[in-house]
TrEMBL record, chains A, B:
Residues 97-466 form the Aminotransferase class I/classII large domain. It catalyses: an aromatic L-alpha-amino acid + 2-oxoglutarate = an aromatic oxo-acid + L-glutamate. It is found in: Cytoplasm. One of its GO terms (biological process) is aromatic amino acid family catabolic process. Its EC number is 2.6.1.57. CDD domains: AAT_like. This is aromatic-amino-acid transaminase. It is an enzyme of class 2 (transferase). Pfam families: Aminotran_1_2. The lineage of its organism: Eukaryota, Fungi, Dikarya, Ascomycota, Saccharomycotina. GO terms for cellular component: cytoplasm. Its main location: cytoplasm. Gene3D superfamilies: Type I PLP-dependent aspartate aminotransferase-like (Major domain) (3.40.640.10).
Length: 478, 478
């Protein structure tokens, strides 16, 4: 049964009144009404008559994954857009370039909702989808929808620093939850909440989790942990914000003995069954807000994301969007609805399978580089999802840990960072991702690397340099 | 001399720290550095190889203005975009669809800065430009940059209701400034500030003004008033936010005896000289933040605007954008830079001249309809700029004003609204645009109409119906 969660809304969100102008706009387009109510320029004069986009065509399921380019297959998906609607899945330019449709253009929402249904089967009927302009904005709007200054949010103790900055500027309190190499630990979450003293800090309203291919640790929550965390959310009445840009980059366990390119292409059914369960897929109470994004599966500059949640909550987001971003760019909505419409749900799943293949190849290559170049004092655990890998180092193994570095692992981390940078490889120190109020006393530190941004040759060169820098810093040869 | 305005910033904005990740990103793209720092997908796999857009071609300066379509002139401006850069003014898709460039893509900013220079000649050197996703977002970000909850802003006493909603949700106090048919009255502004009691409400930090073709009154501030208001801003130390989406729709005075299509096309110099002076053009202290938008000059769904202000202030906006919207859509930036680059500054000015012509034709037609259909108790003053016209009615002239309507003009306004709606014409009641804390005791009310959204035939039908509704309500025939 879907829960009424209005008691968790921010004062800002509760105070947002419906505009009287909206009551007039419901008459817009009504037969035989001359509507002189809104400052809408006539679409006749939008200076784009036609837009044509050339994209690769499915299937993308060959050995090279999405690396099979149109020039190689000889096929293209051609999206032709006009002011008028031609294909039923297209958003005509006269509409996408006009005001209106804050929640998103119907054709695009239709595709995204069907996609959500196929992937997550949300188990309650009152869910819906709206567009956003990417997960950074979705998160900012989420904070404005739920949190008053001084409110508390639960976060993974290491998390995306930009998400922290978004929240910090809104004067939110952070309650970091301990993690291990498999991500957030449900027992630690429950312990924190059980012992919560609401006279010191308000009880947390929401948990922010990058559950799959976590940034920065690369960890992914198992189905079991997700179920435990969801049950805790129901018991303690908070909302789960699942920020899932990396969800489809689920490469599975690393297998030393198999070359990624030799892994047989799965059927759609096999692919769907292999995906980890989202919080949304177990959300019987409507207390999950899922943030999805085109940034990692199509391109970041699309500035298109979508939010899935119960209708009543999404209505509050739409009221906020009306007076902030309005909606995603019309070019973006027309071009993406056009491409996805032409690919179809099946073609898009082919794309996602091809994308996963691409990342599996890179994850595996990276792991082999780590095996080759890292000294034995470095630990690493090949990620099962996402763009990030970590190398973990125990600062106590440094011969000058107590002397030169005052037994402070962060000082050793900093030394490694600068030594590697000088050697020509940049990886990000893990401590940069610590949540405010972080509590930890381990002597280990880690670096976050990515295999997303560079080709295999660069990965090899970079990791060789990084390994060398560590060896030099620690005075070891192996 | 440009002033340091940091004392006017909000706590949120002052508290925004530079991200440590940014310090790493400065190394991105450096020669011989393998950058494993950022989760940037490779542009090779963005599924858009080529985008081609067909637009009308300059000149647009014929009798029909921008209504001269490519199909009529036989000419098109064709924008071809690729992942790589071909033309120097194009933003290549590999870059626009990637992360980065929060302030906007350099080629687009370059065009917008030159345009700003041509139109406004900002009189201090430290000004700059960043992109936004439209003026609604620019205004939201402006409020977050300057205002703490409880801070005061000055607004025109009738103003865009959505702008009010944006501010209201952030718990801002409103100080409405009295207006007449020429807009905000400088003497009233000064009186308000001179008598301000800061022990009751914080002294205003900013003035929000839609200075040209004001929404909803259609009024435009004269050069003289603007100069007076600017001097008051310097004297009382507040920031002027000029929200100017209608700036280029400056039709000039209505001339009963001339058909708009017969007005000779001005030279670029004549056109530029005919434009009202912006606050930016007189801003010697760097205390104007100008919000510009593509919404009314190209298309609303582009979701592209730009902000002009002193560099130090814009830096605060960029920090906010990094953790909220990131930047405008890459499709938008590539398509608009591509179109404007091909048109050139001159071609774009041709477009603006053509656009003004189009609106002049519609403003004049509307005025003739008002002359024809409105009973004599209705007053109207043809707007010199913008999309909106008003019809002003004295409720005291209603035979049942004191009896049926309790001498309340708003009740008469409401009766006219519903009667016109029933007759098949929707115009917006002026009282819907009253600022919070509005003080007024006149018996007159007004309606806001627009000539933007419909064609001439519809305008004629609608205004005939509206006139008839007023006549019926007031029991007059003329």
């Amino acid at each position: 049964m879907v829960k009424d969660l209005h008691h968790l809304l921010s004062e800002e969100s509760k105070g947002r009144k419906p505009s009287p102008l909206k009551s007039a706009f419901k008459y817009y387009g009504q037969d035989d009404l001359v509507f002189l109510g809104g400052g809408l320029p006539m679409s006749d004069y939008f200076p784009w008559e036609k837009i044509v986009a050339y994209s690769p065509a499915p299937p993308f399921t060959g050995a090279a994954g999405i690396a099979e380019k149109p020039s190689e297959t000889g096929k293209s998906t051609v999206t032709e857009l006009y002011k008028e609607q031609v294909e039923k899945f297209d958003v005509p330019l006269a509409r996408s370039l006009q005001y209106g449709y804050t929640a998103g253009q119907p054709e695009l929402l239709d595709f995204l909702k069907k996609h959500t249904e196929i992937i997550h089967h949300p188990p309650y009927p009152e869910w819906d989808t709206i567009v956003s302009i990417g997960n950074t904005e979705s998160w900012d709007s989420t904070l404005r929808t739920f949190c008053n200054p001084g409110d508390t949010i639960l976060v993974e103790e290491y998390t995306f620093s930009s998400a922290i900055e978004t929240a910090r500027a809104l004067s939110v309190n952070f309650a970091p939850v301990h993690m291990d190499d498999k991500g957030l630990i449900p027992e630690e979450l429950e312990k924190l909440l059980k012992n919560w003293d609401s006279s010191v800090k308000p009880f947390p309203k929401l948990l922010y989790s990058i559950s799959t291919g976590q940034n920065p640790t690369g960890s992914s929550l198992s189905n079991e942990r997700r179920k435990q965390i969801y049950d805790i959310a129901c018991k303690y009445d908070f909302v789960i914000i699942e920020d899932e840009p990396y969800y489809f980059l689920q490469m599975g366990e690393y297998n030393k003995n198999v070359e990624a390119k030799d892994i047989p292409t799965p059927t759609h059914e096999e692919f769907l069954n292999s995906l980890v369960k989202s919080f949304l897929s177990m959300d019987v109470e409507g207390r999950v807000v899922r943030l999805d994004s085109c940034s990692k599966v199509l391109a970041p500059g699309t500035r298109l994301g979508w939010i899935v949640a119960q209708k009543d909550l999404l209505e509050r987001y739409v009221r906020l969007h009306e007076v902030s971003i309005q909606t995603s760019s019309g070019f973006t909505q027309s071009l993406i609805a056009g491409l996805l419409g032409r690919w179809g749900q099946d073609g898009y799943i082919d794309w996602l399978i091809g994308l996963r293949k691409e990342y599996t190849i890179k994850r595996d290559f990276t792991t082999r580089c780590l095996e080759k170049y890292m000294p034995s004092l470095v630990k690493y655990d090949p990620p099962v999802a996402g763009m990030f890998f970590t190398v973990i180092i125990d600062a106590a193994k440094h011969p000058e840990f107590a002397t030169k570095y005052d037994s402070d692992p962060i000082k050793v981390e900093d030394a490694v960072y600068h030594r590697a940078l000088k050697a020509g490889c940049l990886m990000i120190p893990g401590s940069w991702f610590r949540s405010p109020n972080f509590e930890g006393s381990s002597s280990t530190f880690f670096f976050r690397g990515t295999y997303a941004a560079v080709d295999l040759k660069q990965l090899d060169i970079g990791l060789e340099r990084f390994g060398k820098a560590i060896k030099e810093e620690f005075g070891v040869t192996n």
